[in-house]
Amino acid sequence: AQKVTQAQTEISVVEKEDVTLDCVYETRDTTYYLFWYKQPPSGELVFLIRRNSFDEQNEISGRYSWNFQKSTSSFNFTITASQVVDSAVYFCALSESTGGGNKLTFGTGTQLKVEL
Amino acid sequence: DTEVTQTPKHLVMGMTNKKSLKCEQHMGHRAMYWYKQKAKKPPELMFVYSYEKLSINESVPSRFSPECPNSSLLNLHLHALQPEDSALYLCASSQEPRTGGKLFFGSGTQLSVL
Q: Are strands A33-39 and A46-52 parallel, antiparallel or unpaired?
């Protein structure tokens, strides 16, 4: 069975600090996809990144960066110079192979609070 | 247009009521999803529609009845709900129903069952 673990329930930082959100996954599939979504208080899940299992290149997008390591089954997310607007719940998710369609298994989420 | 629109945003209903949640997308996506999210929990998949046909039902109680009238619309009909069904109901869509597809989510319907 697929599983996504986000061990950090809540993280509080002061604005401009760097913060890393951890994600560890388990799957028996050789082809799989990993995602990060952001959920602000408004409730909508906002897509941040998708990575497939064959692409271990790290990615940087502005203040966001992602470190994918198959050897440790981890897909960590770093926010550089955090801002108050980054406050949200962040979910890591794993896309599961099914006969019926696309199924995302979400981790339990990390609540990030960025304070002035 | 990259939006998934859900109505209503908030809904309060009694246990004997019948109500419907609506979801609409105009991105030409061929897969649509219903997720349920309890407070401080991750979203949990309920149903997947692929090319307007129900392809995944995650053993959801029959008091929740999904409907996909066309490729742009997805409904969730509610009947005889229980207070524990109170949650945020999220609709999503993806271009294709294949594994790894990027999901676009609506802002959800916050449902309270009294």
A: antiparallel
Nearest to A104 by CA among B35, B88, B81, B10: B35
Question: What is the distance in angstroms between the Cα of B38 and the nearest Cα belonging to chain A?
Answer: 11
The answer to whether residue B7 neighbours chain A at the CB level (below 8 Å) is no
State percent of chain A over pLDDT 90: 74
Contact A45 B105 (CB under 8 A): yes
With helix as H, strand as E and coil as C, how does chain B read?
A: CCCEEEECCEEEECCCCEEEEEEEECCCCCEEEEEEECCCCCCEEEEEEECCEEEEECCCCCCEEEEEEECCEEEEEEECCCHHHCEEEEEEEECCCCCCCCCEECCCEEEEEC
- Cβ of B103 within 8 Å of Cβ of A102? The answer is yes
A45:B42 CB<8 A: no
Mean pLDDT of chain A: 92
